[in-house]
Amino acid sequence: MNGLLAEYLGQRAAEAGGIDRDFAAELCTRLSDFTLHGGKGLRSVLAWWGWLAGGGADTGPGAVAALRACSAIEVLQSFALAHDDVMDAAPLRRGAPSFHAGYTMEHQSRGLRGDARRYGESLAILVGDLAMVWADDLLHESLAELPTGDAAHRVWRGMRTEVIVGQFLDLSAQALGDRSEEGALRTDLLKTASYTVERPLHLGSAMAGADTATVAALRGYGTDVGVAFQLRNDLMDAYGAPGDTGKATGEDLREGKNTLLLACGVRLARERGDFGAMRVLDRVGHPAERVDAEEAAHVLDRVGARDEVRRRCRELAERGLERLREIELHPAVSDGLRYFAETAART
User: Fold this and answer.
1) pLDDT (tens digit per residue) in 39-85
2) What is the pTM of this model?
3) Which entry of 12, 28, 87, 213 is 20 to 30 Å from 121 by CA?
4) What CATH number was assigned to the domain covering residues 148-347?
């Protein structure tokens, strides 16, 4: 799959170079390198498993078209990350400077004119825009070779909108200081569960023309395990090492994101009458009283939020696996989905 994607991105970069060589070098080459290296390729693999689960062949022209369509999700992911990092002011991504941070540093080191930060953010937005366009093009061209293209396009349209709605809810919760568990889970569902697990499986199974029961089981698994996967990410953000996550520890707490970890911590602190914990957690995300992320993470652990989120990860992963019992799966797909669910529950 990576080879097909590398070939496609290389062709598009060469075409762009014919329009403007600097554009190709500054944006296209970097987008290609970022997309092809450093990521886990999770979404495209899940889409391929959805294709196999739906009865799609693993060889032949149809399989090649499906592989190319699955790989389009990796380009879409580059769009999401480039834009998200600007919105979150995230300095690191995959263990290296994020797009906007890298462009900002280059502006400063080269002594260019204008505001370095604005320049960096603007180029990062263009990288994200380019990724969205190329992802759409790749998917459209690939699905033209499959008789199920219309159904798959509907899944793609829904997935793109949902991830943007999820990001909107994330930003809104920060601005409003929302600390509701319901709001946190809704954001997790739309921003991560749908986009990372449910919709890729749905896309692959739609391309294969899967029956209703298979699609429903895969989507149910994707929703449950996708939320568990995001809850695990929340724990990793608060307690993981940058070498493992590729990001600075505690970014979500510094930004005041309404994660389930934080929402549970606020509720548990109030239920226990732990006024010290309440004071610390009330300051999370407050512009005038920025709390130390390490201190907040310690408080969340102390009041029991970390353990509660761990428990929910396990429950969601188990429920997702239970849904797969309703359908027959290729052994490799069954093993892969089980392993992924177990990973999401491993906190």
Assistant:
1) 889 999 999 999 999 999 999 999 999 999 999 999 999 999 999 99
2) 0.92
3) 12
4) 1.10.600.10
